[in-house]
Amino acid sequence: MKIVNYKNYLLLLVFMLCSSMFGVTSYSSQSKMPIFRSELRTLSDKAILLAESRLAENPKDNTGLMLLKFAGYFSPDNRKVLLLRGKLHYKVKMTKPKTKASDKEFLILLKNALKRVKGKNSVISRHLTAIFCSMIRLFDPADENAIVTLTTYRDKGFTTELEPLFARDLQQARDIQYDEKDPRYVVSNIKKAIMVPADQPWTDTFVKVEAGKFVRVKAFRVWEMGDVGKNIPACDADGYADFNPLDPNRKKVTKKKKGKKVVVKKYYKSNLQAFPGSLLAKIGKKSYPVGREAVFRAETSGILYFGPYEWADYSDNSGALQVSFEISDK
Length: 330
Prior knowledge:
This protein is of the alpha+beta class. The chain has helices spanning 6-22, 27-30, 37-57, 62-74, 79-89, 103-117, 123-139, 144-155, 162-166; strands spanning 190-197, 203-209, 214-220, 223-224, 251-255, 261-265, 279-283, 286-289, 293-297, 302-308, 318-328. A hairpin with a 2-residue loop joins strand 7 (279-283) and strand 8 (286-289).
């Protein structure tokens, strides 16, 4: 006769019950998250209490609004979050919660959570680290660890502002890979935004692109290809389509050996079919006209740069474009 070991079944049942109560998950479902979801729920609950307390006194309190967004980011279906958002939207008077929560207590929870995720090499870990550090600075602006981490992230091109961090879907985050020889450079597919000044030939994006990858670009704002004593207007990334800045005064005169004078226009990037003042991209030694919006396929591998189509001197230029770009396989 086969004897059933009911003790093992009982232990398994108890473990499953505890897992559902305390947020313990299996390795396969938890491996993508560097922190237990139960810890995130605890943080969210504390954030709701603090947000409710602050917003009851001042519905426009910035810290209170960020606390509400923090709670909503990790617990979007929480009834208390939805209720607070609704009261703010419909301008319903709020009362302070009966349960008290202190800033100090929430700060300790944030720092403990930061210890769990900081330094782990995944896009989710870096995303959570940026959120936790930015939240820490709301309560302790002089926190040195948070300042150093956020500065390092900005130098590498990561987003550190809370609004865009909360706007990003954590579950659809893609991991970012860096060049082993020079970790300043990203070598994987990525979305990024940078400022491209008009007064320098090329601006480094700190992204390396492989041949065959697609580059999608959008550019905003205006810049000026200035010139001393000349009235040159500002232009957007499409350049001077309706204005010709290349008048005879911008020509360089050279002499041939026979003594005949030959007028030669001085271009720095004249091999491209693009308007002067327009936005250009460069990968390796190959340049691409971009303008306000473009999609092109990288013909060679190399570092991605952006710069203005200048015809003379960069030093008298002013302004900058905001350039958003994405590297993808198709």
